Amino acid sequence: MREFLLGLRLLFGSGRGNRTRFLLMALGGSLGVCCLALVLTIPAILDAHDGRSADREPQVFVGKKAGQPTFVLQRSDPHGSKPFSRVFLAAGTNATPAPPPGLTGLPGPGEVYVSPALSDQLRREPGLKGLLPGTVKGLIGPAGLTDPNELYAYVGTSRDRLGGEARALKSFGSEHPPTTAVESSTLDILRFTLAALVLLPLAVFLSVCAKLSAASRNRRLAALRLLGLSAKGTQRVNAAETVVAALLGAALGLAEFWLLNQIMARTGLPGLKWYPGDGALSATTIAVCLLGCPVLAWFVGRASARAAATDPLSTRRTAVPRAPRLWGGLLLVSGLGIVVGYCATGFTDHPAQSTGMNSLLVPGGVLLTGLGLVMTMPLLSYALARWLARSGSLTLNLAMRRNEVEPGSAMRVVTGLVLLVFSASLAQGVLVEERQITHNDSPSQEYGLSLSRLTEDQQRQLRDIPGVRTHALVMEPRSDPDAGSGSQAPALVATCAQFAKLVRHAEGCVDGKVLRLSDPDVSEQPLSTSTFRMVKGGQQASLKVHVPRATVLFDGFDVTNVPSPGLLVPPSELPAHAVPASATLVLAGASDPATVRAVLDRIGAIAPTADVDPAGINIDGLQQITVIETLLALGMVMGLVIGVAAFLVSVTDRAVERRPQVTALALIGARARTLRLVQCMQVVLPLAIGLVLALVAGKAAESAYLITGGGEIFWDGAGVPLLVAATIGVLALAVAGTLPLVGRRIDPELIRRD
């Protein structure tokens, strides 16, 4: 306790510079704690979403229920790129179950309760009321909604209107949600990626904040040691300052997170919105932040003061420290060995899978690689400095000799940005893997809409949607019991140009002629003359299409509306001013997620009540990939903030600590331009080596993850240009951050103080 109080007296009584450093340590720690609390709270937000989804899930009786029970029928349709869910309830007379969360009672016939987001949507799109038969009586409370943006409704009706699909309702509530915001397996991967994106740079950043003005503090601690203070007491004096700064920073960081949660919960993120209570600080999060950060600061403070406590004379005389040890390089080599080994299996016929020991070795190899990058930076900086210092350049010699003397400072300055580039590759790998799982693999994406639910104006607007490259009609034949042994075939109404855009490859198409559609991968069937019902001026008519001998061969996509076997009918064959009674309007466009979401949103705005069949797309999966992209983007932003903050704090601290040396060089004739280049090279050269190594190691780690994930994409070449651009941007930032740090004013007093 005596040493602790001495540390506090030295802190508050040793001048404005030390108090300023203490304040910077606290503010830097608060930024790190705020990011840490956000990472720890994300799983709680997702769990709250899934918990409310499970609490409202209807439970039904198996088989028939005696008496007049309450019946339930669920419907979920895509509205744009979001699901639109409706629960139809027909209240019974016996054993009426308790209402679902968010409602005070079951809706009666003709009563509708909607979510606040759906209420706003109804005002913008009155056509949605056709899907909600009845009168809106109120809103669903937050307890019955997964998030504030959900489109959800409870519709009261009668038993005879529910049809045969309705089931007798037992109660509301289930142990497991029907759908989760993020699947459990994906959530584990997401947690690991966020840890690499945020927690590793965060640990480096907090260590940087705890070591501000390390050289000045070490000289002061060495003086205490020479005055008779014990070695352990000297370490405790230094730890007292770092612990108090960390504790104050942790309290400020929790307050910053509370404010950030209130703002973000109201504004939301793309695909992810939550209630403020979902992001409330838990006891575990508070304990980790208020106890974990001071404990980390305690160990960092004791470790940083070890040299001054054990060898105070060398600290006061600024003796040359020993060379970095090789064990950090061993971590990097071990991690890369594991990662590269799994990458090598991608060239074989039997790539490794994430089962058994592989599920532990791959994450372990990635963690070893990341830690190895951190611990290898002093060794790389030392080796680079010794090699370049032998050159005849005065600038290089001045820059590299300082790095040779202080190789550990390179780790504090550049590690945050190096880890950011390394983690960005992992984030790209997770996105590539999820897109393989949740999206159509073909380059074409089709959307099917029932023609009978569309007006002519809506059809025209749908065909003109940006991102839709072609359209066609698929007519369903009228059932004919007298058709004979052959079967009637559906018909695709399209020109040859339209048909070519719906398939991979077409051969033998002739405009103006009825042709048979034949896909070699689909077995042939005998076809008879097909009859289609048409509507013309409100009157029913028939269109008979004879099966021709002429055939068009085509190679279709995996999930498509193109019929096979079927007929290709040119639009000119349809009667004038007549429309098919049973047909599907097919729209086709690109399959990338951004285009799919944009097209679905435009379809929802043009025809809100239409039933859209996005071929091969799971709307819940589309929502999930949006949430994952948002969380990874949030992690990238936090990692960038932490990395840049660590870099700027470290570079500024280095510049302040080295003012006496810079002043001495200026007094003996070194020009300001030379000094700026020296400062720049001391930072940029180790950073460039670290970024290149991080880029290579990150792509190797990403490939190992993709290979063991079992997808079709092993090598993500599309992400390389983005990472290279990020690397160049980081180097540009480093240059811009180091050049202004050499002041123009020469103060010889700095040398006397030193």
Detail the topology: elements first, then pairings.
Elements (H helix, E strand, L loop, with lengths): L1 H12 L2 H40 L2 E3 L10 E9 L2 E9 L20 E4 L1 H9 L10 E5 L11 E6 L10 E6 L11 H27 L3 H13 L4 H37 L15 H22 L1 H5 L1 H5 L10 H19 L12 H31 L5 H12 L2 H31 L5 E7 L5 H8 L4 E8 L15 E3 L2 H7 L2 E3 L7 E4 L11 E7 L2 E7 L5 E5 L10 E4 L8 E3 L2 E8 L2 H14 L5 E3 L4 H39 L1 H9 L4 H38 L10 H19 L10 H5 L1
Parallel strand pairs: 3-6, 4-5, 10-16, 12-15
Antiparallel strand pairs: 1-7, 2-3, 2-7, 4-6, 8-18, 8-19, 9-10, 9-18, 11-15, 12-16, 13-14, 13-17
Helix pairs in contact: 1-6, 2-4, 2-6, 2-7, 2-17, 4-13, 4-17, 5-6, 6-7, 10-11, 10-19, 11-12, 11-13, 11-19, 12-19, 13-17, 13-19, 13-20, 19-20
Give a summary of the structure in a few sentences:
The chain is α+β, with helices and mostly antiparallel strands and 754 residues long. It has 21 helices and 19 strands.
